[in-house]
Structures are given as structure tokens and as C-alpha cells.
Amino acid sequence: MAGGEHDEMTCRELVELVTDYLEGMLPEPDRVSLEAHLAECPYCEEYIAQMRRTVDTLGRLPQEPIDPAREEELLEAFRGWRVTRRPPGRRNGA
Ligand SMILES: [Zn+2]
User: Fold this and answer.
1) How remote is the CA of residue 77 from the centroid of ligand 1, in Å?
2) Domain spans, the chain
3) Rounded CA gap, 86 and 14, in Å?
4) I need a surface site. Which of 6, 9, 29, 68 has the fewest CB within 10 A?
5) What's the pLDDT score for residue 55?
């Protein structure tokens, strides 16, 4: 890599790498940046702690990082969406 700039990881980058990190698949340089960010960012520290708990519970990583409670809300919304949305071109001729 060119340049001697210090790579600072953003919260968004951390979230994108968290799966690899928890699976131990993250390359060393990325892992170092991630842990450096964790040391300074309580939000991401809490986020990782939550992910670890999820993995503990499920025995695996969720496909997307998401709160179980929020996931249920989303599923409800999807169900509602399916019911509400009618196929186009088919009207009720009341
Ligand atoms: Zn952060």
C-alpha cells in the first residue's frame, strides 16, 4: 500500500467486517484496525458484544446483523405488505 497514512476505520466499515471478524476470517491488518476502533468506540464495542451473544444463542451468525425484536417487526411489515398489495390489473368490480 502507498502512503504512510493511519487508516482509521469508520463505524460503517466495522459493521461490514464484523462477520469476518467473529468468524476469525479477517486479515491481520483489518483486524488490528477493527480492534483499534473498538478500543475507542463504545457503540461498536456494544455492537460486537451483541453479535457475540447472538452467535452464542443461534450457534451461528445471522445473515444480516439485526435485532430479533426488529426482525419480527419487519416480518410483520412484510406480511402486511403482501396482504395489502394487490396484483395489478385485477380489480374488484363491486
Ligand atoms: Zn464505531
Assistant:
1) 29
2) 11-84
3) 40
4) 6
5) 82
Q: How far is the CA of 41 from the centre of ligand 1 (A)?
A: 5
User: Ligand 1 centroid to 8 CA: how many Å?
Assistant: 10
| Backbone φ and ψ of 88, nearest 5° | -70, 155
User: Residue 25 C-alpha to ligand 1 middle, in angstroms?
Assistant: 20
CA-CA distance, 8 to 34, in Å (whole number)?
9
Ligand 1: centre distance to CA 69 (Å): 22
Q: How far is the centre of ligand 1, averaged over its atoms, from the C-alpha of 60 (Å)?
A: 23
Q: How far apart, in Å, do the first and last CA atoms of the chain sit?
A: 69
pLDDT tens per residue, range 38-84: 999 999 999 999 888 888 888 876 665 556 666 666 566 656 655 55
Q: Which CATH architecture has domain 11-84?
A: Orthogonal Bundle (1.10)
Q: Is the pLDDT of residue 36 over 50?
A: yes
**What pLDDT shows up at residue 54?**
85
